Amino acid sequence: MKRNAVIPYAIIAIVGIVMVIVISIAGVNQREAIEKKANGEQTEQKTEKKSSEAPEDIFANSCASCHGNDLSGGFGPDLRKVGGQLSEKEIHNIIMKGKGQMPAGIVDEAQADALAGWLAEHK
Questions:
Q1: Does 64 share its domain with 113?
Q2: What percentage of the chain carries pLDDT values higher than 70?
Q3: Where along the sequence do coiled-coil regions lie (predicted)?
Q4: Domain boundary among 52, 71, 89
Q5: What pTM did the predictor assign?
């Protein structure tokens, strides 16, 4: 009796196709879970970053390019003694509304509060 050589290959092909389908379904579920987890972690990180960012860091990231790393000025005015010239509220208004060449809304409200308090200390 002669055996058919195609049967083992057919079985291997069917098993392979079934495995690909199962792995694909599992992969889709894992992908969704990973995306949900990643989105949740990014939201938490952004919230933590905003609430724990130091005024010095906010200044370095948003203001130093014009006002200099040491507050000495450059394109923007010297801020080393701005607290002696303006109140915290006035500084906050300038940060939020802009003045002269300075655009409005470079930072959000909470960051502006932190910056204004920090800059008001520089007298």
A1: yes
A2: 89
A3: none
A4: 52
A5: 0.58
- CA dist 15 and 46 (Å) reads 46
Residue 43 has pLDDT above 60, yes or no: no
Question: Do 44 and 60 reside in the same domain of the chain?
Answer: no
- 44 with 83, same domain: the answer is no
Say how many domains are in the chain. Answer: 2
- Spatial contact of 90 and 99, defined as CB atoms under 8 Å apart: no
| Pair 88, 115: CB distance under 8 Å | no
Question: Residues 72, 78: contact at Cβ < 8 Å?
Answer: yes
CB 88 within 8 A of CB 121: no
DSSP summary character for residue 77: P
113 and 102, same structural domain? Answer: yes
The most confident of 35-39, 45-49, 53-57, by mean pLDDT: 53-57
Q: What is the pLDDT of residues 109-118, one digit of tens each?
A: 999 999 999 9
